Amino acid sequence: MKYADEFRDKEIALGLAKTIRAETDPGRPYRFMEFCGGHTHAISRYGLEDMLPDNVRMIHGPGCPVCVLPAGRIDMAIRLAERSEIILCVYGDLMRVPGSQGASLLKAKARGADIRMVYSTIDAIRIAEDNPEREIVFFAIGFETTTPPTAVMIRLAEKKQLSNFSVFCNHVLTPPAMQNILESPDIRNIGRVEIDGFVGPAHVSTIIGTAPYEFFAEEFGKPVVISGFEPLDMMQAILMLVRQVNENRHEVENQYSRAVTRDGNLRAKEEVSDIFELRDQFEWRGLGPVPYSGLKLKRAYARYDAEVRFGMNELCVDDNPACECGAILRGVKKPVDCKLFGTVCTPETPMGSCMVSSEGACAAHWTYGRFRDHQQRRAS
Amino acid sequence: MCLAIPAEVTKLLPDEMAIVSIDGVSKEISVALIENLAVGDYVIIHVGYALTRIDPEEARRTLELLRELSLEGQGVAP
After folding, report:
1. What is the separation of C-alpha A10 from the centre of its chain, rounded to a whole number of angstroms?
2. Which of A15, A28, A33, A132 could form a disulfide with A59 if both were Cys (CB 3.0 to 4.6 A apart)?
3. What is this structure's pTM?
4. A37 to chain B: which residues are within 8 Å by CB?
């Protein structure tokens, strides 16, 4: 077994679609938010929406770390990278995320800033070892999935006694964002979205386990099904959500039991809790400031905190007012509802963050979904 | 960012590193987040780190259940 192809079987998927259709009540809507960008990508890539009944709607959520990073944090990173003593190490998908006034790390690199794309935090450590005369800053972003690798990197930097290494920390947490979507007063000016259940993140949950969602499911009365990223995983998760809604249950169920347990990866969680602590709040693109949703380095590790080390000031900038990323990230609007979509905003020239990462709702729809729109228009 | 792939551990290296094979393509990754890993284990890889070990028994059970659920919609008794 290779744990991929087996979960992409077309015949089984078609059978699952029939089971879902047989079990849905045509008299009511089923509105499920897939929080994670990986799921958004899978839904578009495998055409899963075409297999679902019309009254089952998938709503794209804010679970794309590149998409939710506010423009101000990009501007802060650009300012760092423009300092001659600094090498800024970044994950590749950050390069084209728009900051203010069309700025991006890619443009800063073209102007001469020393910005290096890395695949892994281990690469950043190697760059620090190879360049002892320079200051190496790792631009850390991501949910609970990418936080443990950052923690391991800091532990490694300490072990190797690297004095030229620090982290610009932008790590965020999944459960507070899910809660924010359901209760935040900050989003009333854009509108709320009705959600009947959540497809829970796959790889975030390998780390945090299923337990953190239990309070959430109980408190808000919403079912949560943790799902793998393969198409059959998602179809099964949707069926499990349909059954919970039909039976008026709101439990946490684990479809992705081959990789996720209730307690998650204890070793990874220990690494994170040793090094990080909660910020009082952190700004998310599309959600605004979300309480206790971001991480920073503990005081004991302040020497590795780029914000402390380089006296970085917080920058808050407004998104392009014509860009609908904020509403799209919360599922209130669809990519095609944005007047920039597919005209001035494409993956080649992204105006908003949702068009940058392949997991962004707009990029996924541009790559796979717009052909479906075209077919639907022709059919009508 | 969040996309992660299953890979087979083919060689354990010093300093919590390992070589994994993804459809025959070898890659060096960190296994600092997983305890008691053995050659032949499958892991989920993300940004150069093994996040978790895949449980083959659970995977088999999920596939079995998927086949059953797929037949249910077609009115076929599994």
Report:
1. 27
2. A33
3. 0.90
4. 1-2
